Amino acid sequence: MRFLESSAVLAAAAVVGKASASTPAGHVHAVRPASLLQRRVPQTFPQDWQPDVENWGAAPEQPNEITVQAASEAKTLVTSDALQNDIDSAALLAHAENLQAIAYQTTGRNRVFGSEGHNFTTKYLYDLIAELDEYYDVQYQPFVETFSGGDATFTINGEDQGAALMTYAPNGQVEAPVVAVSNLGCEPSDFPAEVSGAIALISRGTCDFGLKAAYAGAAGAAGAVIYNNIEGTLSGTLSVPNRTEGPYPPTAAISLSAGQAILSLLEAGEVTGDLNVNSIIEDRVT
C-alpha cells in the first residue's frame, strides 16, 4: 500500500461490512456498531513497531491472459455505486481523527513517507481493510522513493532575503560574490566565466529549475539562487539529482522583489552573498 491516506481508502474503511440475507452480494452495507465508531488509536503505539518486510507480498505480475476464478473461490464483488451510497460520515470522521492522532503522537507529528507516522498509518489501514477478507486480499508492498527536505537561507550584507529550499538541492554553505546570469539561464552560454566560484543569480522562466541549476554547476558556480518572475515567494524542485547537464550546486529560491533589489545592488558594484542550504536527500522505503 503505497500511499494510503486517500479519500477512497478512508471511504472503504468507513463502510466495513459483509453481505447478508438483507444485503445482496455486490453490496457492502455500512457498519455502524460501537466497536467501529468508538475505535480510537491507543494512547501509545508500540514504538518498536515496523512493517514485517520479510512477509510483505510482492507486487502481482500482469497475467498473459485473463483467468476467471471459480465461483466458490471468487471474492464477493463490491459495486462502486453501492459503496458510495453506504459511506458513513460518522465513521469517516472517526477514522480521520484516528489518522490525526497517529501522526501527532510521533516525533515529527506527520506522515511523511518512510516515517513512523507513515508506518503506523499503513498498519492502521491495513488492519482495517484486512478485516474485509471476504472482499479483499490485502498485502504490504514496499516501494523505494527519494526523499528531500530541509531549509535554506540567503543573506546580502547580513539582510535575510527570505530564501526557500529548492527540493533536491544539495547541502552547502557558500559566501561568495553574486553574479547575475544573462537571459534566463537556459543555455550554457548564459553563464559568464565570472560565475565560477560565485553564487549565480538566475531568473525563473522558460526552462525548468533543475536545468538552470545544472548549467550553473557545470559553469563552476559555488551556489545558485533563482528569483521569481512574478510577485510572490518562490519554491520548487530541481528534480532528482545526477543530470547529464551538470551537478547541482547548493540552490535556493527568492522572490521577484528580492531578486530585483540584488540586481540594483549589482549595478552599483560587487555584492557578496551568504547562501546556506541544509538538506536531506535519501532513499526511503515506503
- Write down the CATH topology of the largest domain: Glucose Oxidase, domain 1
Low-confidence stretches: 1-9, 15-47, 49-72
Q: How do the helices and strands follow one another from N- to C-terminus?
A: HHHHHEEEEEHEEEHE
Distance between the termini: 8 Å
Number of strands: 9
Q: What is the radius of gyration?
A: 26 Å
Mean pLDDT: 78
CATH architecture assignment of the largest domain: 3-Layer(bba) Sandwich
Give the structural class. Answer: alpha/beta
Largest sheet: 9 strands, mixed
CA-based shape? elongated
Query: How helical, in percent, are the residues?
Result: 25-40%
Report the portion of residues in β strands: 15-25%
Walk me through this protein's architecture:
It comes from Diplodia corticola. Keywords: Aminopeptidase, Hydrolase, Protease, Signal. Residues 174-262 form the PA domain. The chain is α/β, with parallel strands linked by helices. The chain folds into 2 domains: 44-59 and 78-142, no CATH class; 146-285, Glucose Oxidase, domain 1 (3-Layer(bba) Sandwich), CATH 3.50.30. The protein is built from 7 helices and 9 strands. It has a 9-stranded mixed sheet with strand order 2-1-9-4-5-6-8-3-7, sandwiched between helices. α6 links the parallel β5 and β6. The radius of gyration is 26 Å and the shape is elongated.
TL;DR of this structure?
With 286 residues, the chain is an alpha/beta fold. The protein has helices spanning 7-14, 34-37, 80-85, 89-104, 116-130, 209-218, 256-268; strands spanning 144-156, 159-160, 164-167, 172-180, 199-203, 223-227, 236-237, 251-254, 272-285.
